Amino acid sequence: MSRRHLCATIAGIALTLTFALPAIAADAGDCPNDGTVRFGVEPYDSAARLAPIYEKVGKLIGDKLGCKVEVFVATSYNAEIEAMRNGKLDIGEFGPLGYVLAHQVAKAEAVAAFGTADGKPDTYWASIVTYPNSGITSVADIKGHSFAFSDPASTSGHLFPAYGLRKGGLDPDKDVKAIFAGSHTSSFEALYNHKVDAGELNSEQLESAKQRGHYKDGDLVFLWKSDPIPTDPFCIRGDLPDAFKKRVTEVLQNLDLSSLDEADRKIMVGAGITRLVPQSDSAYDGIRDLVKTLNIDLEKLS
């Protein structure tokens, strides 16, 4: 991972897909943007897989709010952050690292997250993997080999794998031939097709790959796995009108996802998750500590 990757600014705020979703009619004064709520989603899987799922989530939110909801799947993690920074998103689901940056530069406020059956925020994990017969049997063996990260602003696709490399005695800036594949799906496919020797894999992408028929036990070798990571926060833009912020916060913190297909929920977060629950900014302080450990300048990721 070269320093220029960290310093590169991902320009533009183009978002790949737009869906206008029906909702209960409401007075324009009750919702921002003359009655429309704009909801952004990070591209943690392909847009083709995420768009129809979040169209349903957007309708659930819209029906509760009484507002029309437009869902946008971003072209990159930073594109979503830039969209909120420029006032073009009212709600956003960010990755944990993306959220820390969005909170710093785009007024994002974490209010909800995927919840377990006991009402607590769920977690996921990151890992470093290779494929069988690559000749790599430990993290230290990756030195000099190609390595796939997903996106510079990704928690499980960049921050934690870089930390895992350091724990294995490697400098992620110098000791591996790093590429940023652009998404978790792309980095997985690079590994799956042996285009790189090692790379990142998170638990959510693993589930998605299983559903696509692209993974079975034994296809990859796990070299390192992270401690539990808090899942993506659902955020609101902090400069929205207070009355609307209160209303959308209540909706998000109590959103029932059980009407979604189980396969859709598995792609979003994993098996068994049926609702959103309250989440706070402080839940991501561990991410901030890891940013400091790795000397990552968040401003240079934006």
Outline the fold blueprint:
Layout: H1 3-7, E1 15-21, H2 32-35, E2 36-41, H3 47-65, E3 68-74, H4 77-85, E4 91-93, H5 96-105, E5 108-115, E6 123-124, E7 126-130, E8 146-149, H6 155-167, E9 177-180, H7 184-192, E10 198-202, H8 203-212, E11 221-225, E12 229-230, E13 233-237, H9 242-253, H10 262-268, E14 275-278, H11 285-293
Parallel strand pairs: 2-3, 2-4, 8-9, 8-10
Antiparallel strand pairs: 1-3, 4-13, 5-13, 5-14, 6-12, 7-10, 7-11
Q: What features would you describe in this structure?
A:
The structure is a single chain. The two termini are 17 Å apart. The protein is of the alpha/beta class and 302 residues long. Strand 2 (36-41), helix 3 and strand 3 (68-74) form a beta-alpha-beta unit. The chain has two domains: 3-122 and 231-301, D-Maltodextrin-Binding Protein, domain 2; 124-225, Periplasmic binding protein-like II (D-Maltodextrin-Binding Protein, domain 2, 3-Layer(aba) Sandwich). Helix 4 runs parallel beside helix 5 and helix 8 (203-212) packs antiparallel against helix 10 (262-268). Helix content is 35%, strand content 22%.
Task: Write a compact overview of the structure shown.
The chain is α/β, with parallel strands linked by helices. It has eleven helices and 14 strands.
